[in-house]
Design a protein that fits this description.
Elements: H1 2-6, E1 12-15, H2 26-32, E2 37-41, E3 45-54, H3 62-72, E4 79-85, H4 88-92, H5 120-135, E5 140-146, E6 153-156, H6 161-168, E7 173-176, E8 194-201, H7 205-220, E9 235-238, E10 241-245, E11 251-253, E12 262-265, E13 276-277, E14 284-287, H8 290-293, E15 294-297, H9 305-308, E16 309-312, E17 315-318, E18 322-325, H10 331-336, E19 340-344
Helix pairs in contact: 3-7
Bound molecules: zinc ion.
Amino acid sequence: MNNIVRHVDAFHYWPDPEPEAVGKTVREFLDLLEGPTHIKLSGQQSNRCRAVATLLHGNEPSGLIAIHHLLAQDIKPVMDIHLFILSVDAAKQGPGFIYRMLPHHKDINRCFKPPYDDSHQDQLALALLNKIKSLDPECLIDVHNTSGSSPSFGVTTFMDEKHDALVSLFSHRMIVTDLSLGALMEISDTLLPTVTIECGGAEDDEANRVAVTGLSRYMTLPDILNQRHGDLTLEFFHHPIRMELTESSAIAYGKTNLLRDGVTLLPSIESYNFGYVTPENQLGFVSGTLKGNLTLRNQDGEQQLHEYFELRDEALFPRRKLKLFMVTTNPEIARNDCLFYVVPAD
Ligand SMILES: [Zn+2]
């Protein structure tokens, strides 16, 4: 347990920033942060608190944009709020908000499970968990953007009314997953109600509005765990499975088959985010065999590829009606993470 002591100060601490002190723009605000930062906002009640994590991925600014906006407005929280801003160094590179993480660094949102090694990300993940344990907030939200354009949604590994209520502050779409990837929200099973909020694409103005509205409710409403918010009924998506490239395959995006050996997806595939696809909707092309290029395993590790997809000549089609989400058109993310998530639609 030595790691825990050694890294208690992994975060720069900034209590109750004055509205004039946070910079005029979000870029100015980012430049004021010297690394991973813990901002505390004192609320009307100091015996209870809530926590927020954001910028785990440096290219997903909506959470930080919303925090900057609310600090500049001098928001008065109903109870103490602890804000944790993680990948400041990655976000600051170049023009800003370009890098998901620094080159050769691990994705910190895959580091929240043992064993923890000596890497910066594992140690920062541990430091955050220890802060959360010692502050003992009533809940935690982790605010992200999707890699492509998308409507907002929440993700949880735990199903109960409290998690539903938290997501409903931001969105009416809720993904329930068993996938154990080492994401921060997975601590829900043992620590406290935690959800991931995907506000929508980093380039979408709507995503920033979702973040501002949701975070403002999160900070100011007296009861956010026992009643749902928003006007729409929650729409659930259970146990999506991940469409991944095989190790030997390659990915491209285009309207024609671009690779002699590999997968080419149509650029328009992004428009199917949270929509249906049917056996009439071509998604792209595969040169070579389906299973030589793609893999789609359910949580028991069973290959589902041929149940859900087929090749007609070299064109890739669904075999049945499906719902897709987290569709990316970023080849880097497609290669290192996944192409999209799938659930069967009935
Ligand atoms: Zn993210």
